[in-house]
Amino acid sequence: MSALSFTVQVALHTPSHSGVGDLLSYACERPLPPGTLVRVPLGSREVLGVVWEAAEGPGDGPADRALRPVAGVLDGLAPLDAGWRRLVGFAARYYQRALGEVALAALPPQLRDLRPEQLARRLRRPGPADGTAAETIKNIALSAEQESVRAQISAEKGPFLLFGSTGSGKTEVYLRCVQEVLEADPGDGLPAQALVMVPEINLTQQLEERFTSRFTGRFGAGAVVSLHSGMTHPQRLKSWLAAHSGQARIVLGTRMAVFASLPGLKMIVVDEEHDPSYKQQEGARYSARDLALWRGHAQGAKVLLGSATPSLESWHASRPATPEDPGGGRYVRLHMPSRIGAGELPKVRRVDMNQQPRRTVFSAPLLAAITERIARGEQCMVLLNRRGYAPVLHCADCEWKSDCPHCSAFQVFHKQDRTLRCHHCGYTVRVPWACPGCGSPDIAPIGRGTEQLEEQLGTLLAGVLRPDGQPVRIARIDADTTRLKGALESQLAQVHSGEVDVLVGTQMIAKGHDFRRITLVAAVQPDGALFSSDFRAPERLFALLMQAGGRAGRDAAYMAAQGSRCEMWVQSFHPKHAVFEALRQHDYPAFAAQQLQERKDAAMPPFAFQALVRADARTQEVAQAFLSAASAAAHAAGLPGLEWVTLYPAVPLAIQRVANVERAQMLLESPHRAVLQRFLAAWQPVLQATRSQPEHKGLVRWLVDVDPLTI
Ligand code: ADP
Ligand code: ZN
Ligand code: ZN
Hints:
This protein is α/β, with parallel strands linked by helices. The chain has a seven-stranded parallel beta sheet, sandwiched between helices. A six-stranded parallel beta sheet has the order 13-23-22-14-21-20, sandwiched between helices. The longest helix has 19 residues, at 201-219. Residues 140-143, 146, 164, 166-172, 340-341 line the site of adenosine-5'-diphosphate (ADP).
């Protein structure tokens, strides 16, 4: 008689799942506490799973003889704690994914492949040599602004939004707040831990150096670890284990780090909180920033968001109380307007492209300014933010643009079937032969590729010489030139060493990098983002331009020695647009106020909540028919919350066809987050049932994106 007298519920990643998954039951010899990692049979394979709280309902009776037994228990690891399990459970529910999928994706990949004996061997390996006797670096004196912010974070509960200019010393504030939290005795027997997130992998190294040098002396070698997808699987497992065991006190990472097991978590920092990279764009489409806020609240950890250009969501959530709005926002807004060490912010120069000859790409005044900088041995950065924006039709004669009559958005040019479509409401017209405004036949989509622009700049600057008599050197950095590992680093090194005079690139070059000799930054064609179909495009453009401008004149001493002022150039057909006006004044609050008013008038986020359902199919008709049928079924079933949820008609995605798959989407909107959640949960089984109907056989897949960042 075997002693398999206990049943456990296990969360695991079952391959075929597209809906909300449930827990699978297994038999075992002893009770296993929730959070225990186990290996269990699934079909003919053996997979990793996490013991979960028993699901509600029947089943917890005596062990069912038909149950397959647990194959192995990863005994060496402490169970994942309740805080972690609650986070995973919430993320799965909120983002409409299977629990097991989210749980397993949140664990380091190598854990999936290790047998219990292998793991035990791994855990026995000696940790990093302690007591490398790193000296304790003394803290620098905080500025008055930094000190007042630090004191407030220390005294209040938060969450906090730290609104600080580029170079205002935000990172220094993070360091001090983290230190304070880690040095305090949490009183629960666990060593206090902090999680610090950055949007991009190539920013983690810079940050790691700063944290390691500051904290190794205080908290020992191995106190700071990183977690991001650029690490090898063994490296990731090592960091993860260090965090899980409490040996690591600080975890630095990208969005995936929000799921790290941190039993002693007391503080979460989200740097550049506005960055779209915090949103995962496949699988469970979670926002690491939003999960950080949830996790901090649930686990009693302070949350500190930081940015020079906060997301409008966070800005709105941190609005001060007023007589009309006595509650104000939930977050505490903190402000650090002054730059430390770096020089002044760049002077913004706008070129009115209406005054330039037709089809000018680089205007004469901009070229003259670049030439002058090169001759003085200074560097320039030319920013092309064309990636990722859907084209809008535009008339060169009267400035007509393809806007939607029903929305505060532009209709998108679809080349394939020559239509203009609104991605919010679905309103569609055929592409006109002549401008509806003035009859001119000269209408075209706005936009051009980066490579072409680099070539053109090379031609225009041919013959320009550096102070050493050598011809000008131009380099381009974008997703295409940095595909190879290490390519970005070596290209950046060329810029830092002064080999490059003009750096041409996409938003990749605008973020974070500490270029010392760049004195001029130019945005050549920013207009596309002003008239994007995506209502968040102006917000992103503004953040990007502020970031890019922050790359100029970073070294006050160099600027003084050169005797020059740093400049940010913007070429635009709409130089008086609110985005550029606010940029000129370096005035984020004015920009945010204007944008929030527009959003409020149009009932868009943060004044409404959205979700997208996407369908991929062999044909556009099948994809749209599935969405329409699921929508009709929701209405027929009278699902809860429907009176507060608007389901818009299905529309094709801007990039409609990818790898021979047609893609369509449907936007859902509600003034209430909880109502939208309730509706989505009730809709899941309906979507699944719709999918299994024979007329939707051609459907490849469907998925839900809650709080989508791009529409
Ligand atoms: P941010 O994160 O806001 O861009 P940082 O924290 O990186 O700003 O600070 C910008 C620069 O100013 C860094 O070189 C940093 O070392 C320096 N710095 C920050 N705080 C102080 C301070 N209190 N005293 C002197 N230098 C400081
Ligand atoms: Zn016209
Ligand atoms: Zn519309």
